[in-house]
Amino acid sequence: MAASTLGSAWGPLRLGVPGLCRRRPPRGLWARARRLSEPVASGRSVAAGSGLGASGTDRYCLELLRKRDYEGYLCSLLLPAESRSSAFALRAFNVELAQIKDSVSEKTIGLMRMQFWKKTVDDIYSDNPPHQPVAIELWKAVRRHNLTKRWLMKIIDEREKNLDDKAYRNIQELENYAENTQSSLLYLTLEILGIKDLHADHAASHIGKAQGIVTCLRATPYHGSRRRVFLPMDICMLHGVSQEDFLRKSQDRNVRDVVYDVASQAHLHLKHARSFHRSVPVKAFPAFLQTVALEDYLKKIQQVDFDLFHPSLQRKNTLLPLSLYIQSRRKRY
Q: Would you identify the family this protein belongs to, as annotated (predicted)?
């Protein structure tokens, strides 16, 4: 049984905020967390609180991120003030690409939108960005931090290939997708922070892969509602599970075993990333705050015995802003 073998396969899960229930946070943390988690009245108020200008392009990126990538929004708020606007632009660029797949009815239209972003990146590096809010903010970030064009293009190319709507053939294919999207995003975030370090890049690679795997798991109920399943086929075949089992929201043991195997791979990547944290520059740690949300999900899925469709997995973690803030203060990932 998946749950019975968890201790030997994963070892004890190290929650990003140990002792949270045993110890009252220092005065002021709760207030800061409430400010982060409250709905934003206007883009101007967020910009002011983030140390950003109040231009329309700033506001557009902030609102897009808050609505479409709330965890990324919170993590970006906790970056150094001089890096936040660029991080918001980068993550808004990622959101724009990510939502293409679900917003088009035909692959051809999706390919046209991807081609727009390829040309946009080329134009950005020619100092001629189109009049599109995310493009303008990304251009500013590229000029400010001399961001590597290759990573931006990798994200576009990988998301373009992913328009095919096919399940991953194996876990390695899912990891490659995560490396070229989520890890590339982290490499660029490190550049925004001014970090050029091999160990930090190594950590970013593993954390990005963990992010991609967890995202695939978290999105399975949503994809299932649209008659799609993207979990690795090799692991499904190993346990004798069909795509129809996931579409029926089966709670059979073999279905949970598939989820356990996939989640274990994400946990392994987090463990690898942390195994050399002493070699990673402390200045790089803010780029890796998303490990808090990743570990929170892995802990929750363990608690429900790897039932991917359990209602508790669909609820927003109201303590996430506080957990992220405490993690940022502890200088760890």
A: Belongs to the NDUFAF6 family.
